Amino acid sequence: MFKRVLLSVITSTALFSAGLSHASELTIGSKAYAEQLLLAEMTSQLLNENGFKAKKMTGMGSSLLRQAMENAQIDLCWEYTGTSLVTYNKITDRLSPDETYERVKELDARKNIIWLNPSDANNTYAVAVRSDDENTKDLNTLSDLAQAYNDGRKLSMATSPEFPKREDGLLGLQKTYDFKTGRRNLSPMHAGLVYQALRDGQVDVAMVFSTDGRIAAFDFRVLEDDRGFFPSYAMTPTVRKEVLQANPELEPLLNKLSAVLDDETMQRLNAQVAVDEVSVEKVAKEFLKKHDLI
Q1: What is the pLDDT of residues 158-173, one digit of tens each?
Q2: Which of 46, 76, 91, 216 has minimal Cβ neighbours within 10 Å of its Cβ?
Q3: Are 205 and 157 in contact (CB under 8 A)?
Q4: What is the three-class DSSP state of 283?
């Protein structure tokens, strides 16, 4: 009789614990710029409205965010395929967008990081100039920019702190296009300040993200990547394997959100935050309601 009661208690406790897995708190990580903060907020609202308890850990650099995923300090985040391919996995092969996704999905699975469905938003790096700047009016391609530097023109370039150190950033760009900016021409700064520096004429050239709404709002001209250097950066939800196994409902939820995100949508949403100064909470809530996600 005692054994039967004990077995019943153990079974009930196990079922109760299993039932709590859905209610356990999930930590959403993000990087420091507007798009990532917005994605983390949308994900937090989506999960909290669907029976999960979610909190955010935001403002990290790419390397720190990756370490947090691998060390189980965060449970999920939105990552970019090109970042994982080149920065985390050190793959320098030229791959198509589909090949890039499949490669990082395979490589990161070995580290217990699961890539869900990619969105149609490709937030790749780009280089931009002011459309009305006489000093750079002759620059239309990255080959033009390389030639300008090789001709000795002192063009100042604003970048994020990470860009000059990345193989999928300035290091690889200079190798592919065979030029050197020169340290004195570089102005690394917080990613959000790069756009203001270019707009206000503090620099001649700037690293930008292709889905950023400030490109159009500030009338920037993006230089054509005529040698196809920058890889695909499909914006994709990623989840730790054990978290997804314990909470399989996460996959369809996050895939629904991913399915309604593309370049035009992200440019518009990012502009609301970075240009119109609408709070990420409000932008996220209105977008999720518009698409019947909450």
Answers
A1: 999 989 998 889 999 9
A2: 216
A3: yes
A4: helix
Element spanning 47, H or E: helix 34-48
Distances 127 to 57, 163, 185, 191, 261 between C-alpha atoms, Å: 29, 11, 15, 13, 23
Nearest to 241 by CA among 60, 53, 40, 105: 105
Place of tokens 């004195």: 184
Cα distances from 207 to residues 91, 190, 222, in angstroms, run 22, 11, 10
Paired with 107 in beta bridges are none
CATH 3.40.190.10 maps onto the chain at: 2-122+232-290
The arithmetic mean of pLDDT across residues 78-102, rounded, is: 93
User: 2-122+232-290 has which CATH code?
Assistant: 3.40.190.10
CATH 3.40.190.120 residue window(s) in the chain: 125-222
The tokens describing 2, both together, are 């005692």
Cα separation, 57 vs 158, whole angstroms: 27
List of residues 6+ apart from 10 with CB closer than 8 A: none
Task: Please give the structure tokens belonging to residue 285.
Answer: 């809530």
Distance CA 21, CA 6 (A): 23
Q: What CA–CA distance (Å, rounded) separates 106 from 96?
A: 15
Whole-angstrom Cα distance, residue 294 to residue 282? 13
pTM above 0.85, yes or no: no
Lowest-confidence segment of 36-40, 41-45, 161-165 by average pLDDT? 161-165
Helix-strand-coil split of the chain, %, nearest 5: 50, 20, 35
Buried b (16+ CB within 10 A) or exposed e, 240-259: beebbebbeebeebbeebbe
**52 CA to centre of own chain:** 23
